[in-house]
Amino acid sequence: MSKANIMGVNFDAVTLTQAADQAMEQIRAGRKGYVVTPNPEIVYQAMEDPDFQDLVNHASLVLADGIGVIYAAKILGKHLPGRVPGVDFAGLLMHRMAQEKMRLFLLGAKPGVAEMAAENLKKKYPGLVIAGTKDGYFKNDSEAVAAVNAAGGADVMFVCLGAPKQERFMSKHQKELNVTLCCGLGGSLDVFAGTVQRAPDIFIKLGLEWFYRLCKEPKRIGRMMKLPLFMLLVIRKKLFGGKES
Are 198 and 208 in contact, with CB atoms under 8 Å apart? Predict the structure, then answer.
């Protein structure tokens, strides 16, 4: 499977279906690992923090979540088939898991959100077993690890703590967690719970999901400013070069 190095982050050049195929293969084989879904903001964080970049690049799957990553790939002449949004990857993965009655644990979001998501997902994916839930407001990691293992573990755990916290959690604790595959999915639990609505399809197709979210949540402007800065750094690299990290 080929990789595309975008500003130091090694993305897997896969489609949504290929990503789900590979994840299912890993789960069935019982190979522990974790999935990351970097957008430009996360790539920018990785550029500034070599340790964070290293743990991102050690993931089993590195999926191009943001349209800015796809634009960067085109500018740099790297091949990526297209976006693989984390929420879409999770949806297809749950569909596949339900067919084999696999177990899923939900970790993250505000109190009550994971439980709401669990109820919705059980209805949407009959056969999917929700092993348990835990909100993201725990005082220390050991509390969360204990909750997962006490629930009997799971084939997959969605870790929705936001970057870089979720990536650090997965990397640090994957060996002690009774979970085969952890997936870092940011705010996806809010979407599954129905507390946050995804952008209309037309925005998604045009690669403007980020703009829709900004309009709905203007306070995100500080974070969104990383996108033009990221693109400027990509263009500078294209024009003037520089070593790959």
Answer: no
